[in-house]
Predict the 3D structure of the following.
Amino acid sequence: MAQKAIREYDAKSILAKHWDKYFPNFTYAYETVMVQNGSELKEAAKEKAWLNEKRLVAKPDMLFGKRGKNGLVLFRDQKPGDVTLEKAAAWIDEKSSSKQEVFFAFEGDTPTGNPSVDFLTHFVVEPFTPHEQAEEYYISATVVGDEDVLYMSAEGGMEVEENWDKVTEVSFKITESEEEIAEKIRANVPADVAEKDKANFAEFAIGFFKAYRELNFAYLEINPFVMQGNKIELLDMVAKLDDTAGFMMAEEWGDVEYPTAFGMEEKSPEVLAIEEADSKTGASLKLTLLKPDARIWTMVAGGGASVVYADTIADLAGIDDLANYGEYSGGPTTGETKFYAETLLDLMTRQKDAQGRDKILIIGGAIANFTDVAATFTGIIQAFENYAEKMKEVGVKIYVRRGGPNYEKGLKDIKEAADRLGLWIDVYGPETHVTDIVRMAVEA
Amino acid sequence: MAQLFTKDTQAIFWNNNASAIQRMLDYDYTIKRKTPSVAAIVAPTADAKFQKFFWGPDEIMVPLYKNTAEAKAAHPNADVLLNFASLRTAYDVTMEALEIGGFRVIMITAEGIPERLARKMNQAARDAGVIVIGPATVGGISPGAFKIANVGGTIENIVNSKLHRAGSCGLVTRSGGLFNELSNIIAINADGIAEGVAIGGDRFVGSVFIDNLLRMQDNPDVKYMILLGEVGGTEEYKVIDAVKSGKITKPIIAWCIGTIAKYYSSGVQFGHAGASANAERETAEAKNKAMAEAGIYVPETFNDLPAKIAEVYGKLKAEGVITDIAEPEMNVVPKARRSKQFICTISDDRGEEATYAGFPISSVALPSTGKGIGDVISLLWFKKQYPKWATDFIETVIKTVADHGPAVSGAHNAKVTARAGKSVVESLVTGLLTIGPRFGGAIDGAAEYFKYADDNNLTPAEFLNYMKKQGVPIPGIGHRIKSLKNPDLRVKGLMDYAAENFPKTPLLDYARTVEALTTSKKENLILNVDGTIGILMVDMWRALGYAEEEINEFIASGTLNAFFIAGRTIGFIGHVLDEKRLAMPMYRHPMDDILYDVPVAEKI
């Protein structure tokens, strides 16, 4: 997956690191800390004097927005702008002590849909910045179709979506030069930016858009930023990075983390292990756990074929029966395939089906272009050898369908191995329609 | 060109991915292509100049180059670049190829090129009118004409899936694995494909569905199209618009995979990087529905796709739009092949009569052919038919260097060995073994240094200065007794011949200016026979149209010395036979001709 969300704190840190390059005529104090609890905040205050000296704002930094509407921005104790270090630390400890409900959608101030419930684990703390509403602006950039689009508005803050008609959109072709871009931005400064601030706004927007491009952000939003002359405050940021650019951006991005979204289950150790293995091979190994107690497990080769199998299982068995989604492709080695298969077999043999049925393992795939089927199946067979007893204990029916280089040998080997190990197996080659084993398995 | 590839299409393959290249050549052989579909390989780190690949039961050599520019210059007709560089370099390779120009199609296999770079690259190609296939793709195929790398998998599968000859379907998919699967489905339920492209799984790919379908609309071999889309993106809507506006009139069968995505939050990435729905419109359902409403044939599920293909194909067949296809004859690639230990590119003794570079020996050997030893040398040494002025020059050189009396080291060695009772060949080689930098080497050296000076536009004075710094006397300059006033007639003869017969002699002209300077310092510093030969050889090759690098290679590999070896062999054999006829006794060097100065070894 190419576009990955990062924390607000990291987004600000990246911009701060390159501030003088993109915003040479503006200042940004970069007064922000990320902490996981109150004592970490107090620890940080020993080095960062402003935490003691200034009034503070605290909020969770966990990839979700609408924190104000969810009541998760601390900016007042008795009155706005009176939050002390002590108060912020106490609030963070309170909010992180139990699971919190977070709504992602609102109509007006009324939440809609179901909330996600999870622990809050990361918070940012920053100085409270007194300013006027008129000094708040909105700016963001992303890719739409083949073009970059810059969004600018004089109306920043939480209400930007309600006031979308006041947002100016400017699209840029990938080939446009810096001069063309700058000219276009200057010509499109939103009309309601005060006349005296227009030039400054344009200059900031030009720097912002350049940073977005050169630092390989996939999405970058500041809502709002406060502009007081040449002094900038970044009150709230949302950002995604194009992580495929990671190899070029190691220095520029620094040590950036791609956290799991709030409310989403933490990745299991098995998934993390597959991700680790994936990052070390030229082949592709992907695993997502959907419903680990479900009955049908898939081990499918190929990015396209894996989707077709998932579609077909959803159509014929329903998604409640689908335990995982994943794929292996690009010619993984025997060892890599063995590791991948063992991970799946381990997960699927941890408990019996609740209704006492056999579990189903779909070893599927289209007709491979270059992956050696026999070599990858050797890895699967080795995994069978290590898990045969567990598989028999839980009850597993294996359906195989595959074609491609060396597929006859691969199919023959896997059939022989399963028979030798006493495993139930049905094996098909390219003469059988790619997803037909799903029908067979479901109808059986 | 409505067809993506023809049977004459040739590619430059960037990165020596030997198994993929072998699959292309196996395909070429199977479908009886005349030329290999891979004209050249760019292998930046390879030292070899070519790599052997199987061509059916035989082997061929595919040239290797260090960079795209050299490969393209040597193979201007290869207008497809198969960019198999890694995700870190694929962008640079594509941009360089666009800069060089002359490529019609660029296929990029790397997955996960940074998005911004991919967009720049795709746009640059689009602006240059170049079709990009990929990134993150296995490629495409025009069955019976040209196949990219691994598309279609093994040769057995290719034949099973009828990818060895053109059918009537135009196929476009995102996925490479499903491309192959669909080819098989189409072979089973219809008559195979006429052209197919897997556009690639990354979010930003060069040519998209509509680009390929519009080309197929214009390709008369394509009678109907199959589009396999995916959840995510809006590219399918461009196809819908083209159908609605009448730009596409051929029937389309289409299906978007990823109908499962609706059940899960956006946190689950199904399939390719490009497969992620950001809006209702981008879901597989919405796109399938919209396509069906536009009159595109859309099956109920992916499982029903084969039946839908059979239905549309049957209909077009019944209407006479599609006619029966004659199955072509194929070559069969042998199962077991062995790589050859030796390569020969100059002569062949397998036929009725052995040949020199393709010419039966009798056609160059007999007096009636009018061919001489110069012709034989041009065939066996250079694999070319040199014109008469050049072969005559070669013969003149051979004759000129045949002998230079008994006193030179080689002749002396040969004579001493013959007198020791050794055979002709033993005696000869002792003579030949003295040929090198000091004896006969001036031919090489003169060619090398004078060419260097000329290539770098050194004035004669600068050249002399340069040689002084190198600490090397100028090879080819100087004679024991001859001078300008008392010229060496061999030299004069060669120069006169060149003046009359060579188209031009730029290096000799330059050497004469150097000679003017050296002889002004000392009378006998004339251009000698070795120098004249070396220099005129360079002029000959230049006039024959060789590139400077090729000439440098001749010099570096010792080709000039070879003329001396060939010629002087005649003289050495003469001296050896002379000794044998004279029945001269064993030679012992007179002791009074040796300075003995042998101190007692110190103990250490």
In short: The mean pLDDT of chain A is 93.
